[in-house]
What we know:
It contains 1 helix and 6 strands.
Amino acid sequence: MEVVENATRLKARLLEQAPDPTRPGWLRVSLEVREAGPGGELPSLIHALAGETLVVLVGPEDRPRVEALAVGAGLVLQLRLRAPGVHTLIPGSVSVE
């Protein structure tokens, strides 16, 4: 499989979060997409529509910030598509809307 660097900017609402059962130190969050588009110069490979739910993996460097957020919080963040159905937060890209 060819790896293509990519970035997608999302505006979303936090639905739920829990430790990722297969990646120690990682967090698995569910987000309701409000808006999705390109995340800068890189192509956007995540084609989510408003109202869709995405599961996103958050790495250890961003986990404390995301864990501190309440369900329902509005977020702006950038994601990468790592493999089919595997979305990861680009480190340092999350902010509260």
